[in-house]
């Protein structure tokens, strides 16, 4: 009887791992996307976009990060607790940035 | 032969199934650590942002000294090294130990290539006198000095993370070869992978902010 429980557990574990493991194909597609976005960011930097160039570069970098975090770092397939954790991390970092920028913008000029 | 040894390991690990192992806790610990890393680099990105807004033209002029092609090549190298890490973990999950080790070796080789390119970039700058208190950098405008100060600090700290990541992955290769990381027990290898992807993530932002300033 003990053996059967162990077998069921092993089977459950295998099923769980099957669900969590993405095939090689998905990863290669994500990688191709990342390489494509790198090519785009280099091309966009070559155009004369003025102040929009920085925003474009940051948007592309953010999309690349989302691909890495969701697929390579597995967050898309993780339990909700990890998704919540990463979301809180992003909010904390963004808050620090926004608060610092307000300080920077409304401060008496240093130079 | 390798199949036999894996079977033995599985049998062993199952007979010791009472041994406590908290994979989710281990992963959460790694994510917490990664968050502190994001804060560490985040502070530097903040410094970069404020100085870039203070000296926009100086930053553009200084960035012309960096080679965007080398930066782009290094970006592709790091992205590919991240791919080989996830492929290695997938192979390990499918019980293909040797394939898993091959993929991690590819990651190590790519990481080494990244560092070699970085070494040539830095030594070329040193030859031109572009280093803190170097003759050429002293003649730069204030914003240019700050740009290169941040460049050396941020790519240097990132390079240190590449070395630490390689050490981490090196240990995992040893554990995999000794069957201590297997298809059913691979959280440590996943943690090494998470660390490596973070190193990749930081470079994704460093590349456009230093090499593609217009």
Q: CATH fold name of the domain at 72-214 in chain B, please?
A: Four Helix Bundle (Hemerythrin (Met), subunit A)
Poorly predicted runs of 5 or more residues of chain B: 1-15
Q: What is the rounded distance between the termini of chain B?
A: 58 Å
Shape of chain B: elongated
Mean pLDDT of chain A: 84
CATH superfamily of the domain at 72-214 in chain B: Cytochrome c oxidase, subunit III, four-helix bundle
Q: Determine the number of helices of chain B (DSSP H or I, runs of at least 4 residues).
A: 8
Q: Biggest sheet of chain A, in brief? A: none
Rg of chain A (CA only): 22 Å
CATH class of the domain at 72-214 in chain B: Mainly Alpha
Please describe the biggest sheet of chain B, giving its number of strands, its sense, and whether it closes into a barrel: none
- Class per helix and strand makeup of chain B: mainly alpha
Q: What's the assembly state of these chains?
A: heterodimer
Question: From the 3D coordinates, which CATH architecture of the domain at 72-214 in chain B would you assign?
Answer: Up-down Bundle
* Helix-strand pattern of chain A: HHHH
What share of the residues of chain A does DSSP label as strand, in percent?
A: under 5%
Distance between the termini of chain A: 79 Å
Please give the number of β-strands of chain B. 0
How many helices of chain A? The count is: 4
Proportion of residues in β-strands of chain B: under 5%
**C-alpha-based Rg of chain B, rounded:** 21 Å
């Amino acid at each position: 009887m003990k053996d059967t429980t162990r077998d069921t557990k092993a089977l459950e574990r295998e099923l769980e791992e099957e669900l969590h493991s993405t095939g090689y194909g998905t990863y290669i597609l994500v990688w191709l996307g990342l390489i494509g976005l790198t090519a785009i960011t280099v091309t966009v930097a070559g155009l004369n976009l003025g102040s929009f160039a920085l925003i474009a570069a940051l948007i592309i970098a953010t999309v690349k990060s989302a691909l890495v975090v969701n697929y390579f770092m597995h967050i898309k397939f993780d339990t909700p607790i990890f998704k919540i954790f990463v979301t809180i991390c992003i909010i904390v970092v963004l808050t620090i940035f926004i608060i610092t920028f307000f300080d920077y913008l409304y401060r008496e000029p240093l130079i | 032969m390798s199949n036999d040894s894996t079977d033995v390991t599985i049998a062993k690990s199952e007979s010791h199934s009472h041994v406590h192992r908290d994979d989710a806790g281990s992963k959460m610990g790694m994510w917490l650590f990664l968050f502190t890393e994001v804060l560490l680099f985040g502070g530097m990105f903040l410094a970069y942002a404020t100085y870039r807004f203070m000296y926009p033209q100086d930053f553009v002029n200084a960035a012309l000294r960096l080679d965007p092609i080398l930066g782009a090549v290094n970006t592709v190298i790091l992205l590919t090294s991240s791919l080989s890490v996830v492929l290695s973990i997938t192979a390990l999950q499918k019980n293909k130990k040797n394939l898993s080790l091959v993929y991690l070796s590819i990651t190590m080789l790519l990481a080494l290539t990244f560092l070699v390119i970085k070494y040539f970039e830095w030594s070329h700058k040193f030859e031109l006198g572009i280093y803190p208190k170097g003759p050429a950098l002293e003649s730069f405008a204030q914003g240019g000095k700050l740009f290169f100060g941040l460049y050396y600090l941020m790519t240097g700290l990132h390079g240190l993370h590449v070395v630490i990541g390689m050490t981490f992955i090196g240990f995992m290769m040893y554990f995999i070869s000794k069957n201590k990381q297997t298809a059913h027990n691979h959280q440590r290898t996943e943690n090494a992978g998470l660390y490596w992807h973070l190193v990749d993530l930081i470079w994704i932002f460093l590349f456009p902010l230093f090499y593609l300033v217009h």
